[in-house]
Amino acid sequence: MVYVLFVVGFVLLIKGADILVDGASSLAKRYHIPELVIGLTIVSFGTSMPELIVNLLASFDGSSELAIGNILGSNIANVLLILGVAALIKPLPIHKSIYFTELPISLFATVMVGFLANANLFVDVKGLTLSRYDGGVLLFFFGLFMTYIYVVSKSKDEPYEEEVSSEIPQMSKTKSLLFILGGSFALFLGGKWVVDGAFEIALLFGLSETFIGLTVVAVGTSLPELVTSAIAAKKGQSDMAVGNVVGSNIFNLLWILGLSSVIRPLPFDVVSNSDILMVIASSTLLILAIVVGRKASVNRFMGGLFIAVYIVYLAYLVMRG
Questions:
Q1: Which residues, given as ranges, of the chain have pLDDT below 50?
Q2: Rounded-to-integer distance, Cα 231 and Cα 303, Å
Q3: DSSP 93
């Protein structure tokens, strides 16, 4: 039954995030909150909700390996799997701000997490950990990133604003509140079942929580980003497809990992350093894909290469156990 609930938990996570975003967006629009602010806050947080819920519950349960593995695995899957699939559907032109600003911020956030997690190597303290202080540092930089997002949003033009507006559902106040409550409950229940199921699967097959977090849980919680980016690529909305992935990676590292470690310090396994290096390598590969082509884009060949690298990485994880 635990394994059935594990699968159902993913469905609840994804659907719960979707319902919560619809209800919150509709309510925000009713109170005349600017459309761009809704898109850059509620919708962005919504696609990262599955990772957030899983991490918070894992932190409370003391499953630090699952929490850290989920974030690192999601970030690797976001670039290699999701952008790979999106590029195979349709080549992705890359906006200048993404490779000049957002991608460097994402790389900086990854390196900072690696440094903070390994900081105890430089002092006379046993064991590696992401402390509450480290979490506070990550949340501080997340605040700076959100300030940057707000400034960028003010420079957007009217057509974009109309496009965002048309996608926000119109609901009554009561229905909006029911969607928010229902979505939040589905997220909590789904997250609990996923965390419990991941723990049981790890025990049954003799696998580490890190492995389960980096693979099954990471891909499962990345499904909202996969669906969003695939649909955006098909519609030719490459900025949304790529921006969704890069923005989600920044959210995962600074917001979710920061909040998780503030709630409860997360012991860090030294073997996870190889996964941090893989996050850096995947972002570097994305930059190379942009630079190597005739124009700033991720073509179908590079999309196929991304997926091939991801399969090799999964094989490495299986060998690592």
A1: 157-165
A2: 16
A3: E
What does DSSP say about strands 266-267 and 129-130: parallel, antiparallel, or unpaired? antiparallel
Q: Can you tell me whether residue 130 is helix, strand or coil?
A: strand
All residues at 6 or more sequence positions from 208 whose CB lies less than 8 Å from its CB, including other chains: 65, 202, 321
d(CA 156, CA 311): 38
> Do the Cβ atoms of 263 and 139 come closer than 8 Å?
no
**CA dihedral angle for residue 2, residue 69, residue 189, residue 49, rounded to 10 degrees:** -150
- Of 153, 132, 141, 146, the closest CA to residue 111 belongs to 141
118 neighbors 273 (Cβ within 8 angstroms):
yes
Q: Is the dihedral of CA 150, 154, 156, 160 positive or negative?
A: positive
Q: Can you say how many angstroms the Cα of residue 61 is from the centroid of all Cα atoms in its chain?
A: 21
pTM higher than the cut 0.85: no
C-alpha angle 219/40/85, rounded to 5°?
A: 35
The whole-angstrom separation of Cα 248 and Cα 234 is 20
- pLDDT, residue 115, reads 94
Mean pLDDT of all residues belonging to the chain = 82
Do residues 79 and 306 lie in contact, with contact meaning Cβ atoms separated by under 8 Å? Answer: yes
Q: Report the first-to-last Cα separation within the chain, whole angstroms.
A: 25
Give me the domains of the chain, ranges plus CATH numbers. Answer: 2-320 (1.20.1420.30)
Rounded distance between C-alpha atoms, residue 91 and residue 194, angstroms: 34
